[in-house]
Amino acid sequence: MTTPSALRIDIISDIVCPWCLVGLLQLLQALEARNQTAALHWHPFELNPDMPAEGQNLREHIAEKYGTSAADSQAARDRLTAIGADLGFVFAFSEGSRMVNTFLAHQLLDWVGERASQLPLKLALFRAYFSQGRDVSDPQILLEIAAEAGLDPEDARQALVSGDHIQPVRMKEDYWRQQGIQSVPAMVFQGKYLVSGAQGVEGYGNILDQLAQMQG
């Protein structure tokens, strides 16, 4: 009897996308409920690639980009806060919350992907941005987050200063856009099955069960 190969899940997401975090936590819970392991491969997507270095107030950004009223924006925050609480995560939105550029953070993730699992750093970045209100576009803060995720901050600094991951990140972003990915989160299971948007713990569980049945 042969052992089935590990489940591969390619995840296209951005660090400042709350639904990317929600989808990840839901997926992890579905995997844990089935005592199932998976190889998670992260790929970059920038919601706001033209965001300037100083960033923008989050509420103002949402209003400008989506035409959302203040009431609708608050309702969305309240909903995310409740969903996060159910998943054991704290969304700490405030009037000072800012949308920031994530290109440098994606370079850091790309560097980590060459040598270790990206999940600890990805979770640390999500936590820093959504729970702690830290600026994940700031190089020094990124190095602090890298250290918190168990990485050598000096190695991380050299990876960012070198610029070696600028082109790889751009190429990966271009590749997924060419594959038709226009919004995140997006997950590709086993290199074949695209699932867009956060599906809920039950939804991801159903997907995992269907894949298990197909593998026989």
TrEMBL record:
State any single GO MF term: oxidoreductase activity
Q: Which InterPro entries match?
A: DSBA-like_thioredoxin_dom, Thioredoxin-like_sf
Quote the CDD domains the UniProt record gives.
DsbA_FrnE
What Gene3D superfamilies does the record tag this protein with? Glutaredoxin (3.40.30.10)
Per UniProt, what is one Pfam family of this protein? DSBA
Q: Which SUPFAM superfamilies match?
A: Thioredoxin-like
Q: Which PANTHER family match?
A: GLUTATHIONE S-TRANSFERASE KAPPA (PTHR13887), THIOREDOXIN SUPERFAMILY PROTEIN (PTHR13887:SF41)
Spell out the protein name for this chain. DSBA oxidoreductase
Which source organism?
Pseudodonghicola xiamenensis
